[in-house]
Design goal:
Number of domains: 2
Structural class: alpha/beta
Radius of gyration: 26 Å
Largest sheet: 5 strands, parallel
Strand content: 5-15%
Distance between the termini: 58 Å
CATH architecture of the largest domain: 3-Layer(aba) Sandwich
Strand order of the largest sheet: 2-1-3-4-5
Helix content: 40-55%
Order of helices and strands: EHEEEHEHHHH
CATH topology of the largest domain: Rossmann fold
Number of strands: 5
CATH superfamily of the largest domain: Response regulator
Length: 208
C-alpha cells in the first residue's frame, strides 16, 4: 500500500518582514509591489544590511553585485531564508549565491510574478536545512555520549572485571547519583577515575 505524501503547512506570509538588498532600480520597485500585494512589510537597503535586518523573515539579495561583507553573518549561516535575485548566470556568481545559502531565486528583470512561489519554496528549504542540522547535531551528541560511556567503562575496570561488570557498576553509580548514565559516564571520565580508586562523590543537592 502506497502512503500518500505528507501535506506541508504553508507559512503565513501576511505581516512577514522582507528586506531587499539591491541597488535602487526597477527590479526593487517591481519586487516591492509584489511583496506588498502579498502582505509583507518591505524595506530596501544598499549597499549593506543593517543590524535591524536580523529581525527580518526573508532577505532578497543581489547575486550579481553582492559580496560577503554586505551581510552581518558568515556565509551560509543566515538566520532566515535568503532569496537570490539573479541577472547574470556566470558560474562564479551562481557559486557565490549558493555559498551564501540561498534558499530560492528570482530571475531578473523582475516582472509581476514569481515572488510568492519563491517565498514558499525558500521557507520550506530553510526549514528542511534547519531540521537536518538539528538531526546531525543530535547524532553527534549521541555519538559523543556513547564514546564517553565506553571510556567510563574502561576506567571502571573493563580489563579486570569484564565489560558487563564494569557497565553494571556504571549503571549503579548513575542510579545512586540519580542522573542519566551518559552524565554519570561524563563525570567519571572528567575525574579520570582509574581502577581501584574511590568512586567520585555524588553531586550534592542544596536545600531550598
Amino acid at each position: 500500500m502506497t502512503r500518500a505524501p505528507r501535506r506541508r503547512t504553508l507559512p503565513e506570509l501576511g505581516g512577514a518582514r522582507a528586506v531587499i538588498l539591491h541597488r535602487p532600480n526597477p527590479t526593487v520597485e517591481a519586487l516591492t509591489r509584489q511583496l506588498t500585494a502579498i502582505g509583507l512589510e518591505v524595506t530596501s537597503v544598499w549597499p549593506d544590511l543593517p543590524a535591524a535586518a536580523l529581525a527580518a523573515d526573508y532577505v532578497f539579495f543581489d547575486a550579481d553585485m553582492g559580496h560577503d561583507e554586505q551581510f552581518p553573518w558568515a556565509p551560509g549561516t543566515a538566520p532566515m531564508p535568503l532569496i537570490a535575485l539573479i541577472g547574470s548566470e556566470a558560474p562564479g556568481r551562481i557559486a557565490w549565491a549558493m555559498a551564501q545559502g540561498a534558499c530560492g531565486q528570482i530571475l531578473k528583470p523582475v516582472g509581476d510574478a514569481g515572488a510568492h512561489s519563491a517565498l514558499l519554496i525558500a521557507h520550506q528549504v530553510f526549514e528542511a536545512r534547519a531540521a537536518l542540522a538539528g538531526r546531525i547535531a543530535d547524532l553527534e551528541r549521541r555519538l559523543g555520549a556513547r564514546q564517553t560511556v565506553v571510556q567510563a567503562v574502561a576506567l571502571l575496570g573493563l580489563a579486570e572485571h569484564g565489560e558487563d561488570a564494569a557497565y553494571d557498576r556504571l549503571r549503579h553509580l548513575a542510579m545512586a547519583w540519580r542522573v542519566p548514565i551518559e552524565e554519570a559516564a561524563a563525570r567519571i571520565v572528567s575525574h579520570g577515575r582509574g581502577p581501584g580508586a574511590a568512586d567520585p562523590d555524588p553531586p550534592r543537592h542544596t536545600r531550598r
